[in-house]
Amino acid sequence: MDVKSTFLNDDLKEEVYVHQPSGFVIPGKEGKVVRLRKALYGLRQAPRAWNAKLDSTMKGMGFEQSPHEAAIYWRGSGRKALLGVYVDDLVITGTEEVEIKAFKEKMRSTFQMSDLGPLSFYLGIEVHQDSSGTSLRQTAYAKRIVELGGLTGCNPAHTPMEERLRLSRESTEEEVDATQYRRIVGSLHYLVHTRPDLAFVVGYVSRFMQ
To answer: Residue 184 and residue 153: Cα distance in Å, rounded?
Structure first.
């Protein structure tokens, strides 16, 4: 589910004043400012105010926040409903469909929301769901990394790293672009989410970021 006009839902705890917006200036009071009752996009307090609003809403519905990951909430014994939050996007799953439907209806009555249907893409990760189960992929993301490294059209290899490779800080080889190197290694770190077989290799090249 996606929350519409996310940062406009939040109540402000601090006193925040802004200039009268163009087109809505009160005649004879042009030098005055207006006090905000709700958050606005671009306001420094807006993201935190939205998070506080969502957190209080979740706990008011009987959800508990994970002590290990602040963006995860659950409700009911056996985790009947599980919720993952990323700014204004909510990923909802659980053991009982009735529980999930009831939660969606409650959220719609609290916020303006749109139901995007079964999860298929989230944070750059493709989610494939069918009768055989759920699989996660980063195909498009991996192709972008190949392009970033200038390896488009190259032949694939059976191993993710040259066998018996030994890298050294004292190497006499010509230096590569440090920024580009870090960018590629950082991209590979995110790819490890769905390709754990690359974890050792990415860890190894990460030792040479400086």
So the answer is: 18
